[in-house]
Amino acid sequence: MSTPVSPNTVLANALSHAQDVLTPRVRDTTPERIVFVVGTQINGAPHIGTSLVQSLAFATAARVREKFGVPVEVRFAALDNAPHTIVTDQSTGHLFMRTYAHALGHQAIAQQIDTLYHPLFAALSERLAVPYAVETYSEQQATQHFRRTWLRVLPRMDAARWWLAPSAGVAHLRVPCPSPGCGWSEKYAQRTRVRDSSRDHATVTAECLHHGTYEVTVAPDSGEGYLDLATLYRNLVKELSLGDKYSGTLHVMVKGGDWVFGSHLVDGALQAVGLAPQQFPARLFCPQVVTDTGAKLSKSLIREGHAPLPDGAAPWMLDTREWPGTVADYVERLLGMTEIVLSDPRHFFRSYSAGEVGRMMTAPTTRSLPTP
C-alpha cells in the first residue's frame, strides 16, 4: 500500500505518535476505561470518509489500550434523526421535515444498521479485539438521563444559545407531531416554544404540517415526545450526559476533520452552562477526505448533480457496498490504510484527496517508508 508524503505541522511536530494527542486527558483523569464515541447519520450507505473515521476509531482505541493498559470500547451513535423528507408549507414558506426514524420506523432502521454497519464493525472488532456497542439517537433521547440533562440545560439556554446558534441565537428544538403516523416538525422550529419547564418536565408547543398547533409534555420517565435537537444542541446535551453518567470513564469524541470548527462552538456552550474545561470530553479529529477543490467529499452533492465525481475517485467511495471485493478484503485494505495514517502524526493530522485515498486503498502493498 502506497505511503503518502506529508508535510510537518505544529501539532505533528509536538507528537511522537498520533494517539499521543489524548495523553494529557488520560493522565489528568486516570480513567478506569476509555470509550471512543463515533457518530454517523443513518441516511443511506456509508461512504469512504465514514469508513475511514470508523476504522480509525477502532485502530486508535487499540493503540491507546496498549499504551495505557486501560480497557477500551467503541460506541457507534447511529443518528437516525437525520432528515428523510423535507417539504415547504406553501401557506407560510416554512420547511417541514420527517426524520429517518419517523419515516422508516424502528425495525427498518435496525435492519439498515445490521446490513450497512454491523459487518464492518464486527470485522474491525474481531481483528483488533476492541468491543463495540451501537445506540441509535432515538434510543438515546428516550433515556431518563438524556432527558434530565436536557431539562437541566433549559434554564441556562440564555447563556448557551449564542454558542449553539451564533447567527440568530435560536437553538433549534424540534418535537415532532405525536399524531399516529405523522412525525412532521418545522425544520427551523420557527413556532416551537417551551411554555414552561422544571426539573421534572417541559411543555413544548409547535406547529404540524397537517395537524396545526400541538402540545407535548416531555418528562424523563413518560416516554412522550421525541427530542430532535439541532446538531450543535444535540452534541451539547449528549456530551453533558456522558460526562455526568459514567464516572471513571473517559469519553473520546471521534469525528471527521470538518468538525474542528463546530466543536469550538460546542465547547463554548459546555462552558456557558457551567463546565470547566477539564470536564469536557476528549476529542479526536480524523483526516478528512476532500475533492480536488478542497471541499469535503459529499455523496449527496455528487448524487444530486451539484458536484462531479473527483478525479481518481470511484463509485465505491460513495457507496461502500460497491467495493469490488469481499467485506474481509475491504476491512484488510482499510486497516492497511489506517496503519499508515497512524504511523506518523504528519499522516494523521491532515486531509486526503479522494484520489489519494483511492490509490492507498487499491495500490499493491509496499514497505512503509519514513517521512522525509
Largest sheet entry:
5 strands, parallel
Number of domains: 1
* Total helical segments: 15
CATH architecture: 3-Layer(aba) Sandwich
Helical proportion?
A: 25-40%
Unreliable spans are 366-372
**CATH topology name:** Rossmann fold
The fraction of residues in strands falls at 15-25%
Integer average pLDDT: 92
Helix-and-strand structural type: alpha/beta
Q: What is the CATH superfamily label?
A: HUPs
Bulk shape: globular
Strand order of the largest sheet: 5-2-1-12-13
Q: What's the N-to-C terminus distance?
A: 18 Å
Computed CA radius of gyration, to the nearest angstrom: 21 Å
Number of strands: 15
Features:
372 residues; alpha/beta; Rossmann fold; 5-stranded parallel beta sheet; 3-stranded antiparallel beta sheet; 15 helices; globular; disordered C terminus
Overall description:
The chain is α/β, with parallel strands linked by helices and 372 residues long. It has 15 helices and 15 strands. The strands form five sheets. The protein has a five-stranded parallel β-sheet. It has a three-stranded antiparallel β-sheet with strand order 3-4-7. Strand 1 (33-41), helix 3 (48-68) and strand 2 form a beta-alpha-beta unit. Residues 366-372 have low confidence and may be disordered.
